[in-house]
Amino acid sequence: MSTLIRAAGKIVVVVTLLAGLWSASAQALTLNQIGSFEEPIYVTSAPNNPDRLFVVERQGRIIAVENGSQSVFADLRSVVEVEEGSEGGLLSIAFAPDFQTSGRLYAYYTGKEETPAEIHIAELVASGGTATLSGDLVPTISHPTYKNHYGGQLQIGPEGDLFAGTGDGGGENDVEENAQDPGSLLGKLLRIEPDAAIPTAQVWSYGLRNPFRFSFDRQTGALLIGDVGQGAREEVDYAPAPGLGNGANYGWNCREGFLVESVPPESGCTGAGPFTDPIFDYPHEDPGDGSAFGCAIIGGYVVRAATYGDLSGRYLYGDLCTGELRSLVPAAPSASGDRSEGASVSALNSFGEDSCGRVYVVSGNGPVFRLVGPGGADCPTSQTGSPPPVLKSSFLGIRALRSKVKRHKRAFITAFVSPCAGRRGEPVSLWLGRQKIGSRRLDRVCTVRFRPRIRHRVAFRAKVLSDGTYTEATSRRLKIRILHRKRKHQ
Ligand SMILES: [Ca+2]
């Protein structure tokens, strides 16, 4: 029995299960169409309002959908490049966590009539029911040679920072050797602190080919990347919080999925490793046994809403060519239980998640669907996967080498957490009032050092987030004063 999507009007689409064949398979899922759009490519909601959805159209418009009615929220068509045969366009948006008060959101797009082509990560500011472009958040990223592998995902990480995924620059085999080059911003996962004095795109992890879609598990914070392969394998990369794979090399162009032999020697792999293998990959040929195959992975989300029944706790993903919705249980070092969800969507090009954890499916042909599980279409009253853990209390200490420093000199500040077990690599941030001025990762003895320049009397605090084992913690206020030279009287 095959699955059909009937997208006539706004009719509920019934999804059939492959009866009998999948005894351990999913419960019935339904796809409710929320509207039809012009080449939609992404969907999300405002962080504070799951009933206000935003659909991104590749040509450059962002359409707000509320109570079934649509309005143009932003129109970037005058700056967005969409060419025939290009993978460019307006590829995703992400709302700042404080969107409700700041009105800020971010957009990832390829710029119009630029030679060489540039990737823009831009900021928009909303006012009333619409938003306008306020400019590039970070310097544009040059993508000069080919019109594919742009990446395109923006997501807010568990600490509130902005992450972006860039492709390798295009062509075959990463001929420009970008993904393995730590100095290139292509073929990377990038991290941006939008509130920094001068926001920059920092390389977070590398060795990616085209991480067109990635997401963070809304419950655990884990990062999951759907990295589109070349001719052989499609892969899912996984990095648990709080480390989130900082510094990881996901292997391209020395590896394609788990394959080592498919790319070299033509690829000219220059990376030395060590490489972080995917937790799952699948082939391009159909194995004929119901297991995954396709041509380009469309990374999705770890479903957490209890309304999704036994899909909760699983990573939902799909493939551009088969359109089949599938899911697996993510874990390091290997995923398990990959299965079909018994549904497919033609021209599948993205998933999305709203702020209460409901999941959406985007067809580039126009329709965008809300995925509905056996618990119904309303916002869930609980999230599942595992019960909330009982956290151990955590202490964050702070001290300075000297409590007074000369004006314009640096203070030497140390922060340390206790207990220490298992916390190496966790980020500790330093704050001046409401402004975060830096973040460092705990060393082996659970200490971080900051060296801020001091211009006037200040008071710092350090913060560490909960890691699922320990509570979050904030340090006491650490005052630093200016050391005035004593005048010598003659
Ligand atoms: Ca890889």
What is the structure about, briefly put?
The protein has 490 residues and is mainly β. The protein contains 1 helix and 35 strands. The chain folds into 2 domains: 12-372, TolB, C-terminal domain (Neuraminidase, 6 Propeller); 395-482, Immunoglobulin-like (Sandwich), CATH 2.60.40.10.
Give the topology, please.
Elements: E1 12-14, E2 30-36, E3 40-46, E4 49-57, E5 61-66, E6 69-75, E7 90-95, H1 99-102, E8 104-110, E9 118-127, E10 130-136, E11 141-142, E12 153-156, E13 162-165, E14 188-192, E15 201-206, E16 213-216, E17 223-227, E18 233-239, E19 280-283, E20 297-302, E21 315-319, E22 324-329, E23 336-344, E24 348-353, E25 359-363, E26 367-372, E27 395-400, E28 404-405, E29 413-418, E30 427-432, E31 435-441, E32 447-450, E33 458-464, E34 473-474, E35 478-482
Parallel strand pairs: 28-35
Antiparallel strand pairs: 1-2, 2-26, 3-4, 4-5, 5-6, 7-8, 8-9, 9-10, 9-11, 12-13, 13-14, 14-15, 16-17, 17-18, 18-19, 20-21, 21-22, 22-23, 24-25, 25-26, 27-29, 29-32, 30-31, 30-33, 33-34, 33-35
The structure holds calcium ion (CA).
Q: How would you describe the overall organization of this protein?
A:
The strands form eight sheets. Strands 28, 30, 31, 33, 34 and 35 form a six-stranded mixed β-sheet that branches. This protein has a five-stranded antiparallel β-sheet with strand order 1-2-26-25-24, with no helix packed on it. Strands 7, 8, 9, 10 and 11 form a five-stranded antiparallel β-sheet that branches. By secondary structure, it is an all-beta fold. The chain starts with 11 loop residues before the first strand and ends in an 8-residue tail after the last strand. The chain has one helix at residues 99-102, and strands at residues 12-14, 30-36, 40-46, 49-57, 61-66, 69-75, 90-95, 104-110, 118-127, 130-136, 141-142, 153-156, 162-165, 188-192, 201-206, 213-216, 223-227, 233-239, 280-283, 297-302, 315-319, 324-329, 336-344, 348-353, 359-363, 367-372, 395-400, 404-405, 413-418, 427-432, 435-441, 447-450, 458-464, 473-474, 478-482. It folds into two domains: 12-372, Neuraminidase, CATH 2.120.10.30; 395-482, Immunoglobulin-like. Helix content is 1%, strand content 40%. The chain is built from one helix and 35 strands. Calcium ion binds at residues 227, 235, 250-252, 255, 278.
